[in-house]
Design a protein that fits this description.
The protein has about 325 residues and is α/β, with parallel strands linked by helices. The chain folds into two domains: about 1-165, Rossmann fold; about 170-330, Up-down Bundle (Dehydroquinate synthase-like, alpha domain). It has twelve helices and twelve strands. The protein has helices at about 45-50, 70-85, 100-110, 125-130, 170-185, 185-190, 200-215, 230-240, 250-260, 265-275, 285-295, 325-330, and strands at about 1-5, 10-15, 35-40, 55-60, 90-95, 115-120, 135-140, 145-150, 155-160, 300, 305-310, 315-320. A seven-stranded mixed β-sheet has the order 1-2-9-6-5-3-4, sandwiched between helices. It has a three-stranded antiparallel β-sheet with strand order 10-11-12. Strands 7-8 form a two-stranded antiparallel sheet. The protein is globular and about 55 Å long. The structure holds the ligand O=C(O)C(=O)C[C@@H](O)[C@H](O)[C@H](O)COP(=O)(O)O. Its EC number is 4.2.3.4. This is 3-dehydroquinate synthase. Keywords: Lyase.
């Protein structure tokens, strides 16, 4: 399947195909010079498979985990890119999950003021969401994605076969971003989460297509794209506050979504899906401490933040909320008994 993200001057394809990684020459020029950026959580078989099909591709590997979406890792990868003598004609390939895509994309966005970048996502989270849309970033001073850019990939290559080497926790965490997409835009996608067994390929294709449409309408998040942040306002705060617990990003988004589902019936429905995915419950937290992290949200506007609220599955609204309102929301448990 091929989808196209249609943008003013940098449209790009999203290829979704099982075993696509076995014939990359059909999707990108194998004779171009590349640097493949990956992390040590990506199995060697995917890295070797990609590298073996390219005539000139050095591999740069950094340690996996959100803690490495950092300035130090950025500097280390950038130094290696510089020593590889990439020119503006060459390109970077991100092979991995959301952290790899965000970091490699940010390197590509800033090296020589921007070179081409291909995204080959190998986790559910990156295949259903983060590989498309051009948000590239690193974390700094304890805040998520606080330094970054919009830098769209030249192409995205999704091979669901790469998910076969993921552990269940990674799969579930990534699926939360697809559930988010369903809750804000498409109830049929939410229903897919209530079927047994889960149809992963359909969930991926449906989710990334919804993302494509949003990015086409609002590439730089001047309006509607903000809805993709459903669950992230408090989710990012939990992720930042509990970075030593290592919750996965999707787990935090799952926790964060529950606070913005005012209808108890829908909240209980989502809670059931999250339990089935084994998403951990929100840890005990200090509302004031989480509020402090929310105050640095990129959707912040003075003394308020644009919160995303889902009243009915498949639709959502953007509601400006003061930080006092956020603190009040945080004071109440989001769970239905
Ligand atoms: O692409 C977007 O836009 C999103 O908001 C997708 C999010 O799921 C993703 O986690 C994103 O990186 C968060 O964006 P941020 O602007 O809050 O850093």
């Amino acid at each position: 399947m091929k989808l196209t993200v249609k943008l003013q001057d940098h449209s790009y394809p999203i290829f979704i195909e099982r075993h696509a990684l076995e014939h990359v020459a059909d999707f990108l020029d194998p004779h171009r010079k590349y640097v493949i950026v990956t992390d040590d959580g990506v199995p060697a078989r995917w890295v070797d498979l990609l590298q073996s099909q390219l005539s000139d591709a050095r591999v740069i590997t950094f340690p996996c985990g959100e803690a490495n979406k950092s300035l130090a890792t950025y500097e280390s990868v950038m130094e290696q890119v510089i020593s590889s003598h990439l020119t503006r004609k060459d390109a970077i390939i991100a092979l991995g999950g959301g952290v790899v895509g965000d970091l490699a994309g940010f390197v590509a966005a800033t090296y020589m003021r921007g070179i081409d970048f291909y995204n080959i996502p190998t986790t559910v989270l990156s295949q259903v969401d983060s590989s498309v849309g051009g948000k590239v970033a690193i974390d700094m001073a304890g805040y998520k994605n606080i330094v970054g850019a919009f830098h769209q990939p030249k192409a995205v290559l999704i091979d669901p076969e790469t998910l076969s080497t993921l552990d269940q926790r990674q799969v579930s965490s990534g699926l939360v971003e697809a559930l988010k997409m369903g809750l804000i835009l498409d109830e049929r996608l939410v229903e897919l989460f209530e079927q047994e067994p889960l149809d992963l390929d359909t969930i991926i294709a449906r989710s990334i297509d919804l993302k494509r449409a949003i990015v086409e309408n609002d590439e730089k998040e001047n309006g509607q794209r903000a809805i993709l942040n459903f669950g992230h306002t408090i989710g990012h705060a939990i992720e930042s506050a509990y970075h030593d617990v290592p919750y996965y990003h999707g787990e935090c988004v799952g926790m964060g979504m529950l606070f913005f589902l005012p209808d108890p019936t829908l909240r209980a429905r989502v809670q059931r899906i999250l339990e089935r995915l084994r998403i951990p419950a929100t840890p005990a937290y200090d509302p004031k401490a989480l509020r402090a992290f929310v105050e640095h949200d990129k959707k912040g506007q003075g003394d308020s933040v644009r919160a995303i609220v889902v009243d009915h599955a498949g639709t959502c609204r953007i509601e400006p909320m003061t930080y006092d309102q956020i603190e009040t929301i945080l004071e109440r448990s989001p769970y239905e008994k």
